[in-house]
Amino acid sequence: MSEKKKELMVAALENGTVIDHIPSDQLFKVAAMLGLDKMENTITIGNNFVSEKMGKKGIIKIADKFFLEDEINRIALIAPNVVLNVIRDYEVVEKKTVELPDELINLVKCNNPKCITNNEPMATRFDVIDKEKGTIKCHYCERKINKEDIHLK
Amino acid sequence: MNNKSLVSIDQLSKEDILRILDNARKFEARPNRNLLEGKVAATLFFEPSTRTRLSFETAVNRLGGRVIGFQDARNTSTSKGETLNDTIKMVSNYVDLIIMRHFLEGAARYASEVTNIPIINAGDGANQHPSQTMLDLYSIKKTQGKLTDLTITMVGDLKYGRTVHSLIVGMSHFNPTFQFIAPDELKMPDEQKNFCDRHGIKYSEHTEFTEEVINKTDILYMTRVQRERFTDLEEYERVKNVYILKNEMLSNSRDNLRILHPLPRVNEIAYDVDANPKAYYFEQARNGLFARQAIICDVLGIKVED
């Protein structure tokens, strides 16, 4: 079956964004991070599609939504290899990948129990110190956290 | 956020450090000056630290300012569940400067973001204690006549010791050479070694505390090896007496060598070292007063004349 036909199994999109290659186990986290639960747009979410690259993958299609880089880059933490297809008039006009932003505001929980952010009602803030490795550093307690140890708030 | 606060040693440039140290020198020559007349400082010690608090409060008093504050959060509304944000905002209504110590890491930085009053971090958990680093730097400069091109040997708990980590950052502007002496369990973490590599700082690592290493040293910085840091108590029993400085180990050391220790010491410096003119740890503590006077004036933007 061609790639085009597979996508059509979900729903064709006139205008909007298709987020492809989402790891299946992260799909609903991605949806929550993007705030899809509060969005009025027409949204199609599919999961456990067969993928040659990943085994299984999830796809999200959002009609009439075009993400700003800041909005979409936050998902790079849990889904670094997603591909964004920007659709206009049923055509893919742009393919984008995501990149970790320089700073993560209130997305990640600090792993240090003695960090002020775990003891005070406040937003967390992390500097991304290595985009390749995904290493981040707490702006407050200065604890470094490796990608595999990152926990979302 | 205001940028007058002193939260972490790495926010200070080489020029900042030299300016503060030069002002500390002026305060040592003449400690009593009415530069804070009419000003009130708060010392908020959410965690007790008598030594640091007395040093800061003496500094404010000798500058002619007044002090309010507390030395134990158990008697404050923090124990009723008040947030740090609320405590800092409340105190900010009353004072010109907040000196704070907290058991939580990052507390001082957060405080500096919720008020326009300058914050001086007097220790936030295991994280930062910049006035300790400034007094260490002042002690080094005073005893060596310079900060540049010195060999500094750090001994003991190099893994958890925040003073040694901050001293590496503070000295990084001055082309130091470091010798790190620690048991494997407490050796200098990669983060600090990577920092040295990035800044072209030479260092060597040793597990043996020998005269050979001491004899190449200008500053011997001793720290306490704490039992509670060890996962393997047999290892603690094995190493606890290996990193003890005894007077006989200093017989062939350099004339300019000085021994520093952030205090309190337990047994890592034998008492027979105290009488050696190279022992400097008690004067080092005294220098804390001048360094803190200089820091207070710096965050308040007060010029210090000779």
Our measurement of the CA-to-CA distance between the termini of chain A, rounded to an integer number of angstroms, reads 40 Å
Seen as an oligomer or otherwise, the chain set is: heterodimer
**Average pLDDT level of chain A:** 89
Helical content of chain B (DSSP H or I, runs of 4+)? 25-40%
Structure in words:
The complex is a heterodimer of chains A (153) and B (306). Chain A is mainly beta. Chain A is 12% helix and 39% strand. In chain A, a hairpin with a 5-residue loop joins β9 (135-138) and β10 (144-145). Chain A is elongated, with a radius of gyration of 17 Å. By secondary structure, chain B is α/β, with parallel strands linked by helices. Chain B has helices at residues 14-29, 50-62, 84-92, 107-114, 130-144, 162-171, 190-198, 211-214, 233-239, 281-300, and strands at residues 40-45, 66-70, 97-102, 119-124, 151-155, 177-181, 202-206, 219-222, 258-260. In chain B, the strands form two sheets. A five-stranded parallel β-sheet of chain B has the order 7-6-5-8-9, with helices on one face. In chain B, strands 2-1-3-4 form a four-stranded parallel β-sheet, with helices on both faces. The longest helix of chain B has 20 residues, at 281-300. Chain B is globular, with a radius of gyration of 20 Å. The interface between A and B is medium-sized, with 16 and 18 residues.
Spell out the blueprint of helices and strands:
The complex is a heterodimer of chains A (153) and B (306).
Chain A: H1 3-8, E1 15-23, H2 27-33, E2 43-51, E3 55-63, H3 69-73, E4 83-88, E5 91-97, E6 103-105, E7 108-109, E8 125-130, E9 135-138, E10 144-145, E11 151-152
Antiparallel strand pairs in A: 1-3, 1-4, 2-3, 4-5, 6-8, 7-11, 8-9, 9-10
Chain B: H1 14-29, E1 40-45, H2 50-62, E2 66-70, H3 84-92, E3 97-102, H4 107-114, E4 119-124, H5 130-144, E5 151-155, H6 162-171, E6 177-181, H7 190-198, E7 202-206, H8 211-214, E8 219-222, H9 233-239, E9 258-260, H10 281-300
Parallel strand pairs in B: 1-2, 1-3, 3-4, 5-6, 5-8, 6-7, 8-9
Helix pairs in contact in B: 1-5, 1-10, 2-10, 3-4, 5-6, 5-10
